[in-house]
Amino acid sequence: MIIDGLTFLPTYDDTLEQNAEYLRQILPLMSKHKIATDPLNFAIFYEYIIGRNIGLNNELDALLGKQVVFTSELSAKLFKKYICDTSIDSLEKINHLLLQLINKTGEALDTTGEKASAATIDFQNQSKKLENNQDLPEIKIVLTEIIAGTKGLAETSMTLQTQLDDNKKEMQLLRQELAHARETAKTDALTGLLNRRAFDQKLNEYIEIHKQNDVELCLLILDIDHFKQVNDTFGHQMGDNVLRYTANLMKQHITEHHCAARYGGEEMAIIMPNTPLNKAMEIAEKIRTSLAQHPLKLKGSKKSIGKVTISIGVSSFKINDSIESLIERADMAMYRAKDNGRNQVMAENAI
Ligand SMILES: Nc1nc2c(ncn2[C@@H]2O[C@H](COP(=O)(O)OP(=O)(O)OP(=O)(O)O)[C@@H](O)[C@H]2O)c(=O)[nH]1
Fold it and tell me: Is 213 in the same domain as 175?
């Protein structure tokens, strides 16, 4: 399903070699658990093997551990819950309501049309009766019939107007629901940032704009340091809270023109259109220091989980850049920040 060029299916950017490797792992696993290799199940196990969908992996581990039978209902439930999020449900609902609305409008128009045609025939017959008619009582009867017909037609037209007004209101509600579903489809549920596919789409759009105009565009890739340790020491829930906290911090430091996204598990990204590299570095530094400044505390307790830090890589758009090359340079800068001791911001290498 596509709305405004946005697909509701996840996107994968793994190489052919990686895909082949996943396949070598997926098929024996599905076969071991006697799971049908239909497209839905395959998508579920693909996500499981690539391991970026922690919730799915936990639930699937539990199900496989209990040797639960993989019914088509269970597959559909997992697929909707972890792969295609709630947008499908909202869109199905909107689609259904829209069809109802179209049918109702069609019926109302048909009824009005039929009544108008019948009235036209009546009026033609009545006008024939009036031609050269000198009989006053008869003329009176015909005129009374014409007045009644006109009144009926006016009522039909009023009913149609009311029906169309109601439909217009319903249509406005549907438009709002659609806008909401569109937002949900672009948003990462945990952090409220843009999700990966919306990020890819936005970056593509900005690259096209920046190719045509000589203005600067920067990309930040942010990765939480030793995040596995946070999960291992304080639990996955706490890890999720740290992700949410970091995302909120990012939101506080960027402007309304910047787009912050959850790029992967514990990796985030910010697209900064119309921003020179030194300004992007300055904002990255502010995000880094405000996170590293204070140890994070467990909610409702004085216990500290220590300082959480991030490493950030920054790249700036060059005229021959593709989406991949721009991301790669920011990624490489981020890995240099990690290699250099973490908790720092690094710009791409000068070319
Ligand atoms: N809580 C939580 N953890 C996640 C999520 N997505 C990914 N992770 C975890 O993030 C961790 C990433 O670990 P690594 O890639 O090994 O890197 P790291 O421990 O952050 O270490 P460095 O990046 O080298 O500093 C893994 O343990 C993943 O399970 C999520 O949505 N929630």
Answer: no
Residue 240: CB within 6 Å of ligand 1? yes
Whole-prediction pTM = 0.66
Residues 231, 201, single domain; the answer is: yes
What is the residue range of 144's domain? Answer: 88-186
Per-residue pLDDT of the chain (351 residues), as tens digits, is 333 333 455 666 677 888 888 888 898 999 999 999 888 899 899 989 887 777 788 889 989 998 888 898 899 888 877 777 555 566 667 777 778 888 888 888 888 888 888 888 988 998 888 888 888 888 899 889 989 989 988 888 888 888 888 888 888 888 888 788 778 788 888 899 999 888 988 999 999 888 888 789 999 999 999 999 999 998 888 898 999 999 999 999 999 999 999 988 889 999 999 999 999 999 999 999 999 998 888 777 777 889 999 999 999 999 889 999 999 999 999 999 999 999 999 999 865
Dist CA 179 CA 277 (whole Å): 34
Q: Where are any strands of DSSP class E within the chain?
A: 2-3, 6-7, 217-224, 259-262, 267-273, 296-297, 304-306, 310-316, 345-347
Do 269 and 248 reside in the same domain of the chain? yes
| Domain end among 137, 165, 186 | 186
Domain count, the chain: 3
Mutate to test the pocket of ligand 1, among 57, 82, 231 (most ligand atoms within 8 A of CB): 231
Ligand 1 pocket mutation, candidates 54, 266, 291, 339, criterion most atoms within 8 A of CB: 266
Q: Which residue has the tokens 């069809």?
A: 99
Catalytic residue, chosen from 21, 47, 131, 266, is: 266
Residue 68: count other Cβ atoms within 10 Å of its Cβ: 12
Do 39 and 168 fall within a single domain? no
